[in-house]
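Here is the promised in-class demo. Please do not try to memorize the tokens; focus on the logic of going from shape to residues.
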């Protein structure tokens, strides 16, 4: 007999419908609120973020590794948003740069809000984001133009549950 482990975080399975995205100034990075007040991003169809740490196995005598060495951590993040949402970000830039690549560093808060009665929220923060590239992919008969945005973050803080 095979037993399945149906463990969930806080007893709740998080899903896309529970995600709330908010962007705003990264006070630790820029010192000023270049994007005005924090604002929820609505028209996002995908988001990916994560960290990778370089590592290698070190060999000594024999055929097996004897230690491990660790290198730098690389942080990546990207999202796909509507053209309208991108324009809202550009328009919210109170610095007057009017070009997404020139907007100073900002943070993106990713909150996972449960639909349970205890109203538990877990928030990860992707910080030091700067939009270093955008890719517009337009096709005939598009009914919603989406833009892939590289966030180029410098770090991620993984949150804990708050009630």
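The designed amino acids, position by position:
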């Amino acid at each position: 007999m095979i037993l399945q482990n149906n463990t969930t975080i806080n007893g709740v399975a998080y899903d896309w419908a529970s995600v709330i995205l908010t962007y705003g100034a990264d006070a630790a990075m820029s010192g000023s609120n270049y994007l005005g007040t924090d604002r929820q991003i609505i028209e996002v169809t995908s988001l990916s973020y994560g960290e990778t740490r370089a590592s290698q196995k070190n060999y000594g005598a024999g055929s097996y590794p004897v230690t491990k060495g660790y290198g730098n951590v690389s942080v990546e993040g990207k999202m796909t948003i509507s053209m309208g949402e991108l324009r809202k970000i550009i328009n919210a830039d109170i610095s007057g740069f009017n070009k997404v690549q020139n907007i100073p560093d900002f943070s993106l808060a990713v909150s996972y809000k449960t639909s349970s009665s205890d109203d538990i929220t877990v928030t990860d923060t992707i910080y030091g984001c700067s939009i270093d590239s955008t890719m517009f992919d337009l096709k005939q008969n598009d009914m919603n133009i989406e833009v892939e945005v590289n966030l180029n973050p410098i770090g991620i803080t993984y949150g804990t549950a708050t009630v």
